[in-house]
Specification:
Layout (H helix, E strand, L loop, with lengths): L6 E15 L6 H5 L3 H7 L3 E8 L2 E13 L5 H15 L3 E8 L4 E5 L4 E4 L3
């Protein structure tokens, strides 16, 4: 029998009304209203869609794509994703998966309803 390990995969995207930044740095923790543990776990797989207009950087989307070999509180993460949807007046597309030694779930945007994966 194959031993399961902790794993989360992400293929999430949200587009929104453009906004400009001058510093070029956006704090993922603050932007998504995350706790420190979750933000540290996903920082390396997050990116913004953007273009440069003269001296400003224009942001018009955000993606979370990739996998991490750990798990975190998926309910808290879903709250943060829904917070960003409401704040951006937009909707996420895609999904993320959660797998630990016991459970395996997929959550599909934009409602992030739980779908239990076959064992």
């Amino acid at each position: 029998m194959k031993k399961k390990s902790n794993l989360m995969t992400f293929d999430l995207n949200i587009s929104f009304k453009e906004f400009e930044i001058k510093s070029g740095i956006i704090d993922i923790k603050e932007y998504l209203n995350l706790n420190k543990h979750i933000s540290k776990s996903i920082t390396n797989i997050c990116s913004f869609s953007h273009y440069v207009n003269f001296s400003e950087t224009i942001i018009n989307g955000f993606q979370i794509n990739g996998r991490i070999d750990t798990v975190f509180n998926h309910k808290r993460f879903i709250q943060s994703l829904k917070y960003r949807q409401e704040k951006s007046k937009s909707k996420w597309s895609g999904y993320f998966t959660y797998q630990d030694r016991v459970d395996s779930f997929t959550f599909y945007a934009p409602d992030f309803q739980l779908v239990e994966n076959g064992q």
